[in-house]
Amino acid sequence: MCAKASMDEFEALLKESFEIDTPEEGSVVKGRVIAIEAGQAIIDVGYKMEGRVDLKEFANPGEAPSINVGDEVEVYLDRVENARGEAVISRDKARREEAWDRLEKAYANETRVEGAIFGRVKGGFTVDLGGAVAFLPGSQVDVRPVRDAGPLMGIKQPFQILKMDRRRGNIVVSRRAILEESRAEQRAEVIANLSEGQTVEGVVKNITEYGAFVDLGGVDGLLHVTDMAWRRVNHPSEILSIGETVKVQVIKINKETHRISLGMKQLQSDPWDAVERAYPLGSVHKGRVTNITDYGAFVELEAGVEGLVHVSEMSWTKKNVHPGKIVSTSQEVDVMVLEIDSAKRRVSLGLKQTQRNPWEVFAETHPVGTAIEGEVKNITEFGLFIGLENDIDGMVHLSDLSWDQRGEDAIQNYRKGDVVKAAVTEVDIEKERISLSIKALGDDTFTEAVDGVKRGSVITVAVTAIEEGGIEVDYNGMKSFIRRSDLARDRQDQRPERFQVGDKVDARVTNVDSKTRRLGLSIKAREIAEEKEAVEQYGSSDSGASLGDILGAALKGADRG
């Protein structure tokens, strides 16, 4: 009877054991820690199964394991039984499965998840999200590049999931998105408390070529280089340094883009308010050259007030020279105020006006007729340019080179560098011209030779050459030519060969040309004039006397006289 009862109990227990479902491999099951030994936790997962898990699987990255006998934990069942008859279980895989379920919900709802950075990999960092490992790209660590991520390691902090793929086991997260969101909220709050025209304090965070970014307590404003000072600022680092606390004025706020424009110079008085009073037209002031361009030089009269010396106002004499050849940066110069346009904030200055006009000085010190000496600077088709004092030139026209030679011939006698003497004939200050004459210093042989000779005079000349067209004659060293038709009144006597070299003949002056330096002479004109005079004095053609009688009487009268 007892044997039968025992048998029935055994069958019932066997049947009961068969009816109990064995847990499915690849699922998460609950278990209880029954012992800890050799760095492992022995866990009873029920179903008459036990398994072992390394203690490190119960520790968060960078922390010591926290597990005790009796603790109830969830583990992942890899296999029901291994070679030792134990269940193959994993706490990591259980955490991972639980984490993926949680993270997928967070990704779908776009909510933040908590994690800790625990390792560095190529291109970024690894983050533990409570069992699942995610990748944090270097660009997503902070809003600005992070040089040292050490202080961020092992600290639990929020992250935003950017992308995840459970099948491939990939998760990409961002810390920057959280910071930007917080920053945007903070920025909106700060901007809401700012107003245009308000004066605030900030810290210089960054300096660029065009300005500086100033932190106003969670939001940055741009302080442009042109709004730092009334004077010219070549680079922001001239007056600012990173970390410096500065007082600025809010110039403009863009509520949509959250951009803030700041100014420092607006907190100072504008020097242009007093420019017209401080710098009257025609007044001379000292200034410092701040910038040189192709068209002139900028001169600072005081901090915030600059004027332009145009290239045309830099020198009386250097017309086609680059401004950099006349002045240099940082040089102190005297300038005259020529024009002020306060509306456009422009001052026109003159450099040459602070010195006397060299043409005026020359006119005062060298009246017309003054002899000068200078070097031939240039030779052109119309004359010579002579270098004079104070870097000015005078010109000797072709017609003023020689009394005796044509200008085109006389200019061949000169070379660049020759030192010549000349007389001042004219100074035109307005046109900046000085006319000189070399021949004026020499003797005018023609004027001397013909002194007292007028048109109609009868002079005695010496024959120097016989030519087919007439004869060449000399009068006090001046050569003239009497044409064949002017050799006699009667055509038969108009023969050059009837004269000989050395003969003295009387001729009437028909023209005195100082320009060509020629005397016009005619024997024929003299004979006609003598005949006319004789007729008027001794008779007329109506008296019946012949011309021979009249001339004979005239000659006798002349002999008696």
Write the SSE topology:
Elements: H1 2-19, E1 27-37, E2 40-46, E3 49-54, E4 72-79, E5 88-90, H2 91-109, E6 113-121, E7 124-128, E8 133-137, E9 156-165, E10 170-174, H3 176-192, E11 199-207, E12 211-215, E13 220-224, E14 245-254, E15 259-263, H4 275-278, E16 284-293, E17 296-302, E18 305-310, E19 332-341, E20 346-350, H5 358-365, E21 371-380, E22 383-387, E23 393-397, H6 407-410, E24 419-428, E25 433-437, H7 445-449, E26 458-467, E27 470-475, E28 478-483, E29 504-513, E30 518-522, H8 523-538, H9 547-560
Helix pairs in contact: 8-9
Tell me what the structure shows:
By secondary structure, this protein is α+β, with helices and mostly antiparallel strands. The protein folds into six domains: 27-109, OB fold (Dihydrolipoamide Acetyltransferase, E2P); 110-180, Beta Barrel (OB fold (Dihydrolipoamide Acetyltransferase, E2P)), CATH 2.40.50.140; 194-267, Nucleic acid-binding proteins (OB fold (Dihydrolipoamide Acetyltransferase, E2P), Beta Barrel), CATH 2.40.50.140; 271-354, OB fold (Dihydrolipoamide Acetyltransferase, E2P) (Beta Barrel); 358-437, OB fold (Dihydrolipoamide Acetyltransferase, E2P), CATH 2.40.50; 445-537, Nucleic acid-binding proteins (OB fold (Dihydrolipoamide Acetyltransferase, E2P), Beta Barrel). Helix content is 19%, strand content 38%. It has nine helices and 30 strands. The protein has helices at residues 2-19, 91-109, 176-192, 275-278, 358-365, 407-410, 445-449, 523-538, 547-560, and strands spanning 27-37, 40-46, 49-54, 72-79, 88-90, 113-121, 124-128, 133-137, 156-165, 170-174, 199-207, 211-215, 220-224, 245-254, 259-263, 284-293, 296-302, 305-310, 332-341, 346-350, 371-380, 383-387, 393-397, 419-428, 433-437, 458-467, 470-475, 478-483, 504-513, 518-522. The strands form six sheets. The protein has a five-stranded antiparallel β-sheet with strand order 3-2-1-4-5. It has a five-stranded antiparallel β-sheet with strand order 8-7-6-9-10. It has a five-stranded mixed beta barrel with strand order 11-12-13-15-14. A hairpin with a 2-residue loop joins strand 27 (470-475) and strand 28. Helix 8 (523-538) crosses helix 9 (547-560).
